[in-house]
Amino acid sequence: MASTEDDLEREERLKSSLWYTIGQFVDEQSIDESFNATPQFIGALTELVYTQIANASRDLEVFSKHAGRKVVNTDDVMLLTRRNEALEMLLKQQLDAMRAAEGRDEQQQVPGAKKRGRPSGAGAVKGKGKGKQ
């Protein structure tokens, strides 16, 4: 039971920190743009952002587990962005720049990494009933 209470306390602290950060950002923007935001607006925006973060983190974990990994990597993040072309393009450019700075090109694999895709072998049978002849 203590674990659940600790989890709830941690979640509340995270939400509180997020609320503070979003409040600071909204205050800065409201000064620059000459508008006023109510505390209810900041609270609603905080809940929206928190929900998006929670959904994204769950999706990333599922993508990683599906690929047989315990750690989320860039492939999972890129898969998450598949429905937002602008974000996907922006992150792809950033990833390419990071790889170039590390001296790796886009297609180089990390040493020791498994190859992706289906194995290609001479004994592979394609389609239904093709092997029965």
TrEMBL record:
GO terms for biological process: DNA repair; replication fork processing; resolution of meiotic recombination intermediates. PANTHER family: CENTROMERE PROTEIN S, CORTISTATIN. InterPro entries: CENP-S/Mhf1 (IPR029003), Histone-fold (IPR009072). It comes from the Eukaryota. This is Apoptosis-inducing TAF9-like domain 1 family protein. Transmembrane segments: none annotated. Signal peptide: none annotated. GO terms for molecular function: chromatin binding; DNA binding; protein heterodimerization activity. Pfam families: CENP-S. The keyword DNA repair applies. The keyword DNA-binding applies. Keywords: DNA damage, DNA repair, DNA-binding. GO terms for cellular component: FANCM-MHF complex. Belongs to the TAF9 family. CENP-S/MHF1 subfamily. Residues 99-133 are annotated as: Disordered.
